[in-house]
Amino acid sequence: MRTLISTAFISLDGVVEAPGGEPGYRNSGWTFKDVEFLPEAFDIKGREQKEATAMLMGRTSYEAFSPVWPDMADFADYKVMPKYVVSTTLTEDDLVSNWGGTTILRSLDEVAALKETEGGPIIVHGSAALNQALSDAGLIDRYHLLVFPLLLGAGKRLFSATDKDAQKLKLIEHEVYANGLQKNVFDVVR
């Protein structure tokens, strides 16, 4: 079974919306506007590209990343790896042609089936609504969280507010940086 890893920039109060400056959110760009940049705090992002063998995202994140990431040197490893987009509305005609192979999945059952295939880790970028659904369905195996020392208030959250049984996480890697960022890597305990 393949490992499904959710990776996120997240505020201390759980917000993941518009970390890179996406329009329409009051605190857009909070990852670079309000916290000093320290390269070592972002080393995990390079490691993720080297370790992942596929990328999974929701439609909204695909539509935000696909016009930009294919031509960015920082994301070169993602260009060649298989990508999967979970969407009930996206069509083949909506996919970009310069970002490698992309498959549209229509349901969480199809994500569960993908996890059963041969291959290495699948990384989930962005995709707040998809992350919530994957977590609630018990499909996420690991979280890579870069926690920013900010309280953003309103905004899309990584975790749903669904009334469910507690889900235990095991901290397997942790580091705190001089700028206040925390790297937390958790495995989901089953």
Automatic annotation (TrEMBL):
One of its GO terms (biological process) is riboflavin biosynthetic process. Residues 2-182 form the Bacterial bifunctional deaminase-reductase C-terminal domain. InterPro entries: DHFR-like_dom_sf, RibDG_C, Riboflavin_Biosynth_HTPR. This is Deaminase. Pfam families: RibD_C. GO terms for molecular function: 5-amino-6-(5-phosphoribosylamino)uracil reductase activity.
